[in-house]
Prior knowledge:
Blueprint (H helix, E strand, L loop, with lengths): L5 E4 H9 L6 E6 L2 H15 L2 H7 E5 L5 H9 L8 E6 L11 H13 L7 E8 L19 E5 L4 H14 L6 H10 L4 H15 L6 H7 L3 H14 L3 H13 L4 H23 L4 H8 L3 H11 L4 H18 L6 H12 L3
Parallel strand pairs: 1-6, 2-5, 2-6, 3-4, 4-5
Amino acid sequence: MRGADEMIDVEAFKSKIQKGKFDNCYIFAGSDERVIKECVNMIINANLREDEKSFNLNRYDGEKTTFDEIFTSSETMPFMSNVRVVEVFRANFFRDSEKDNRSKSLVEDLQKYAGNIPKNTILIFYYIYKDTREKPSKKLSKFKKNSTIVTVGKLKGAALQKKVKDVFNSKGGKIERSDLNFFCSMVENDMEIINNEIDKLIAYTNGEAITRKDIEKLVPSKSDNDIFNLVDYLSQKKIKEAIEIYNELIFKGEKPTSILRMIQRQYSMILKIKLLYQKGKRNDEISRELGLHPYICEKMGIQSKKFKNESLRKILDLSLKLERTLKSSTIDSNIEMEMFMIKTLRV
């Protein structure tokens, strides 16, 4: 084993693994954490039996670990095994945006060490992109000589449909091709979310074939998910993250007025759910009354606990005022939307 001096995609990585070709150092970077974890586990399971893992597999949090810790584990001889695997998750020090002294020092030390990793050690790093616009870090180019860098992008088109169909099959779900295509167009392109939505559909249909009607009823649209997360960030007073989601929606082609209407609908539904909870209604009663799936109702119910009734009413008033403002052609809609989000933190 040695570094592969290359940057490859997931399919190329899997092809090499299936041929039994392993390298000493891997760095995974991408937007789909579930796919990255699948790749990491492919390396681990191909090299270590279950009974070998307790002695020969070390896992470290990249937000907390040190170079000395990684170095010591990597230099330790395997115990009753041919290979030792060292995994560093949340290796965010590889990001271009991470410029603190710790990240800089760690990257420099690892760069020097990458060419000297023992032949019986496999060192694995991975980090997840913050949003769809993030690209592989420029820092990674320094590791190409002695490492295999695997970029994990979102699956699209036929590749996504094949992967999703495989997940349905593995879970015993029945779905026709046209309904599968519709599901793929509706769901967020993230394998963790896709798996959760498939579980939800299979449980709901109870062995029957999944139809478009089931999907429309249970699966929130991509924009709905984004709005839920945006409002959730606002409830936690994380304005930076909320604005990032807003910018993502604009990047995807949504208009400020459309985003505002979705935010209004979310806050309005949260208030309705909160008031019904205060009347002693149960989750199943509320979901029937408002026409929501119990799972979605439960999620919004949890969200409602983060707001006071009066705060929700004030936010809705602010949104109505902003709606009138956005009809003017002389204002910057994006700035007005950002100001609105900031104001919601103060009510």
